[in-house]
Amino acid sequence: MRKLVTILGLVSTNFVYAQQPADSLSPSVKRIPEKNELKYNLNESGSHFFKVTFLNQTWLRLNQSNPGTTVVGDPKDNTFDIGLRRTRIQLFGQINDRVLLYFQFGMNNFNFLNASPAFNTNGTVSNRKIQAFFHDAVAEYLVFKNKDYLKIGGGLTIVSGLSRFTQPGVSNIMSMDVPVFAQATVDQTDEFARKLSIYARGQVGPIDYRVAVSDPFPIQTNGATPPALGPNANFALKGQTKQLQGMLLYSFFDKESHQTPGYMTGTYLGKKKIVNLEAGFITQKKAVWHTGDTATDTVYRTMNLWSVAAFVDMPVNRARGNAINAYLGYFNLDYGRNYLRYNGLMNPASGTTQPIGGLSGTQGNAFPMFGTGQVIYSQLGYLFRQDLLGSNGTLMPYAQAQLGNYDRVNGSMGVYSLGLNWLIKGHNSKLTLDYQNRPYYIAQPVTGKLEEQGRRGQLVLQYQVFI
Question: Which UniProt key words apply to this protein (predicted)?
Fold first, then answer.
């Protein structure tokens, strides 16, 4: 009983101190410095540690629907929805001088529909309680002690090739969302851009490299009905081959962060001077198939994807905190003959009365996001001075453009976004208002190629909390 009284007394004392203004506390009261991370040191120096982070991105969205859109059976010209774009937990740490352990658990694209492939393709309602899953489970070994020359790892990981946006750090992206087309096989033969892989990565002088051998998942396990074998290429339902990918990056000034496996920072908010050139690729033999000269012939093709890009993220005025962020990339994407796939992020619609050329998922906010052809992607953002809004943070406006020339689409496809970040406390607490404008299409009756018919827009307000 005496121990209980003592504990209650200590708790009540701490509560009283917590309610007092900081300047009213006695000088003898020890102030605990504010922490900005949840980190447990495993040794005295803190070089060995284990850390936990939490991320939540909430969307409020108004969308102009593609023609023919239905929501749970009702036609909808416009939709308003609330959703969780990403909810994630990271657990990782440097266990000793050489070994890093990394896990990520969470869910994505969770709105009133549950937005699962099963719902969108055949109308069956899926279980809204099974969305969370392991995104990453990786162990990594540092070959040369205290040097980042060579790290060897394996597991379920986003370490890959093609580009920085194929493996983006989503807690610190400059825009509201990433260019998802760069995650080239997302939810087709991977698990939300993650693959079972073994890899090597490292930094040698100004060179940052990564190479990986991945074991792709069968397309039949992605939760959607696979498209039938036909004259246009799709991922093959038979056979299984390994995937090879890699990326090489040259840094002219500061080196990029190399702590967590794979993930590449979207913006350092002027804390670093980054000017990079990059080149990357993904290749897989017999990844796709289509019919040949007759409907009974089956032709297998190699998937070959590559890109080159330049990335700038640097301060303009270090004293005031102004910074610039810019990216320009060229993507050459060969998924096989006339491959094309629609996608709409956290799609707010469940069906359509106006199907387009045998393609699935064309409703809501979807557009032809993935396809055989070429894509130019660019973004530009400007960070205002750090004290622009006093203690309420600062602003960072941005613009994005995705220009695609796909073999199965007549003319160039342009998707454009304008946005404004209110960085209340950097990436830890920020509001983003984003407007996107996209095209919609019909299929030509003879050739089956897509012809643009008009444009639609969506407006999203996102609130991100990250610690």
Answer: Signal
Between CA 197 and CA 161 the distance in angstroms is 12
Cβ(348)–Cβ(72) under 8 Å?
no
What mean pLDDT comes out for the span 411-431? Answer: 97
Q: What is the mean pLDDT of residues 400-404?
A: 98
Residue 372 has pLDDT above 80, yes or no: yes
The phi, psi pair for 289, rounded to 5°, reads -145, 165
Query: Which amino acid is located at 335 in the chain?
Result: Y
Quote the tokens at residue 5. Answer: 């009284």
Give the tens place of pLDDT for each residue, 268-291.
999 999 999 999 999 999 999 999
Element (H, E) at 337: none
- What are the boundaries of each domain within the chain? 38-466
What pLDDT digit, counting tens, does each position of 434-465 carry?
999 999 999 999 888 999 999 999 999 999 99
Is residue 445 classed exposed, middle or buried when 0-12, 13-18 and 19+ CB atoms within 10 A define those classes?
A: exposed
Q: What are phi and psi of 129, to 5 degrees?
A: -100, 5
Residues 309 and 163 sit within 8 Å (Cβ to Cβ): yes
Alpha-carbon distance 186 to 109, whole Å? 13
Rounded to an integer, what is the distance from CA 27 to the centroid of its chain? 48
3-state helix, strand, coil split of the chain in percent (to 5) is: 10, 50, 40
- pLDDT above 70: residue 28: no
Q: In whole angstroms, what is the distance from residue 50 CA to residue 137 CA?
A: 15
Q: What integer pLDDT is reported at residue 226 of this predicted model?
A: 87
